[in-house]
Amino acid sequence: MKLVAQSAPYIRKPVSVKRMMIDVLIALVPVLLFACIQNGWSGIYVILISVATMLITELICHMFIKWPTGLRIKELFSKDGFIKLKKQYTINNFTAPLISAIIYALIMPANCNGYVVFIGALFGMLIGKMIFGGLGSNIFNPAATGRVFVGVCFGSKLVYGQGGVDVSASGTPLAQIKGNLANVGEALKNYDLLDLFLGNIPGSMGEVSALFILIGAIYLFARRSADLRACLSMFLSFAFITLVVSIVAYCVLNNQHADINWNILTLFLYEMLSGGLLFGCVFMITDPVTSPTTKFGRIAFGTMAGVITALVRYCGAYPEGVAFSILIANMFAPAMDHLMRGKANTYNWKQLVGLGVIMVIICLIVGFTVAGQLGGL
Prior knowledge:
By secondary structure, the chain is mainly α. 63% of the residues lie in helices and 1% in strands.
């Protein structure tokens, strides 16, 4: 067997990187159009700043990373110099940052200040990607990197609105039940499950509509342009923990004879449709560059992201943890591949049992935490 040295993304299927990236762009179109229509010019403004910042940053950084041998700076603006430099670029140097820019914009609120969008996009592309060598060399998701940076540094500037109107006073669906799941009954008076599914709620532009995310997911997976293992493992691991949380919350409140106007399924669906879980599962955790290359590695990778999302949401200070969880999982992706080195590229019952044991432990931790928050301990 002959080993061929290549850079990421590592694709074994008969799908070119060019076609895969174009498919991702097409899958993002429904969510992008919904964001533009719902938020108007305030949303388009955020998208344009993000796209321009990341494309220009990629262009300038790649120019220096792939500087042609022997090309002098004074020759850069000549016809020959331009041709030499142009040869270093492919369509992937345009589509890859474009995807990152759109994803970053869609996980930002529409009413965000322009300079905050610019700083996050610049940081995400420069520190999250180009500093590692550019396309195929980065270990962090650029969009998640930029979003976490502005969330930590400019949290007070992130005003969540709906349809371009500031409705942050009522809070996002997750913010209304953060720290006290007993508030879900009151929250459902503001946003019912249909609103959560269609996207008629405040929040980040592209994360609010489960309907349009699922439309993009169907296209993406039908075209086999994204790995289903990471997506499903993240979704199912979070869903399992959320189901346990819903059962614990209902039982505790019911034993306290609280006035409950919701059931376990209602709370479960409310949590699953709120926040950026679906968007992260479809468009972020499936990034082939920042995820492991092995089959079990991707299952473990997605499971880790789902578990950390649940820990942040139910035990942490932030109401949402998708971007955090993806960045943390990105750090462990090389280690997951290293552990699978020299082994069959598959998974066995021991590995799956190990993940199952970890899930049980996490469920116990989260369950006791939620019970404590509701006064059940």
